[in-house]
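Re-run with default settings, no changes from the original entry. Doing this only to confirm the output is reproducible before filing.
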Amino acid sequence: MYKKYWILSTLALATVVIGFSCGETNSEGITSPIADPVQLVKRGRYLVNAAGCDDCHSPKKMGPHGPEVDSSLRFSGYPAGRPLPAFDTGTAKNWVLFCGDLTASVGPWGTSFSANISSDPTGIGNWTEAQFIRCIREGKWKGLEQGRPLLPPMPWQNFSKLTYEDLRSIYAFLKTTKPVNNTVPQPIPPGGMRPVMK
């Protein structure tokens, strides 16, 4: 009888150990239960859609029911070469203003442009998973240790609370997106804001 319990206990322990060893461990020592790349991408797609990443990172076009994501430019950020709409610099000191498709914003920090997060090298195509996680967890541009801080309205402080597994999933999904070549303009500091309208 004891032999039977001993064998069952050993099998149960082995199952737990094997289950944990199949996942991947991050730098925080937390094991990710999603080892299947297909499931990781599916979860990433779900999280990106739920978090509304298209709202700011995808240019829009006018559809029959109002603005809709331009699927040919999905996740490409503010289009390079597009003139910045005119705004009142006085108002921008006290308010946050968005351009019509939400890919650029103006406020007390200056003017910021939504990043290209497509899989193209001008987006996150050359980023490592570690860079992506640092970008979101620490608010660092391109996930570089010495990178400038991410600017508003990017809510990285909220997204930094996502689990390691969630961030891995988002990264895995974004790496499967259509690459869109688009080098987003650099931010404009408050003193250099342009253009002005009356």
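The longest helix spans residues 2-22. DSSP finds seven helices and seven strands in the chain.
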